[in-house]
Write a structure and sequence with these properties.
The protein is of the alpha/beta class and 252 residues long. The protein has helices at residues 21-25, 46-62, 75-84, 112-121, 138-152, 202-207, 221-228, 246-249; strands at residues 39-43, 68-71, 95-98, 100-102, 128-129, 157-161, 184-187, 197-200, 210-215, 241-245.
């Protein structure tokens, strides 16, 4: 798709109302450090986490509850995609979006789109895939992606990962982007390289009908603990369902 020609309403479901930004801005949760209502399921291994996530996504699509699916980057989501590609899923009814993207070409090794394409999208046939045109730069990429998100919001199922610092999508602890509204925003100074990115906003993630957050490995234990306390962006989405392995659960 040539995002320089994308129409604001393209990809919207027939008869679906458009959501106003102020409605999203008033969605679940705040940006303070108060604990929110989170559902945390601890499984033994990272493989079990990936398999459980794949099964939940497939079931949601099969039931018709997930017509829009937002994908994430990262090693655990990648394994989820590989397993999901082997399941019987009615992909023809699904529109795929992305939670964030680095400002690199879509075939770059650091591209979340490339990861998802290689692990999943090349093996299935979604109705529509809306990748983030982040290679155009943070501001233009966000400007072009925002009407796509606006036409489809509220999103049905959002898959997110968690960084060791507790970030999710490209929303980092203490970064001003955490307090931004709108649909998608550009990041110029990410604390984790590369510095330039495009990300969905926290209000958009909060307004999603279902959010599934994956965290695996001992390196994520501190982030999970902070997330439970609402101290980092990954823990600021009320009602999110966390799937974590025993190592990520740590001693908390």
């Amino acid at each position: 798709m040539d995002y320089r020609r994308v129409a604001p309403g393209r990809g919207a479901r027939a008869g679906r109302p458009r959501w106003r930004l102020h409605a999203l801005a008033g969605s679940r949760g705040g940006t303070d450090a108060s604990p929110l209502s989170l559902e945390v399921t601890v499984l033994e291994t990272a493989e079990e986490v990936a398999a459980a996530a794949a099964g939940e996504i497939a079931a949601a699509i099969g039931s018709g509850a997930a017509r829009t699916l937002v994908l994430a980057g990262g090693s655990t989501p990648r394994r989820c995609y590989e397993l999901l590609a082997d399941l019987e899923v009615a992909w023809g009814r699904v529109t795929v979006l992305f939670g964030d993207e680095r400002c690199v070409p879509p075939d770059h090794p650091d591209s979340n789109y490339r990861l998802a394409r290689e692990a999943l999208l090349d093996r299935v046939s979604p109705a529509t895939v809306h990748r983030m045109p982040a290679e155009l730069g943070p501001d233009e990429g966000a400007e072009l992606y925002s009407p796509v998100v606006a036409a489809l919001a509220p999103l049905d199922l959002v898959l997110l990962g968690v960084g060791e610092d507790g970030h999710t999508a490209s929303l980092f602890p203490g970064h001003p982007a955490v307090n931004e509204s709108g649909w998608a925003i550009g990041i110029h100074d990410s604390p984790k390289p590369p510095p330039e990115r495009v990300t969905l906003t926290l209000p958009v993630l909060r307004a999603a009908r279902r959010v599934l957050i994956l965290a695996t490995g001992a390196g994520k234990a501190d982030a999970v603990a902070k997330g439970k306390r609402g101290e980092v962006p990954s823990g600021m989405i009320a009602g999110a369902r966390w799937l974590i392995d025993r190592e990520a659960a740590g001693a908390h």
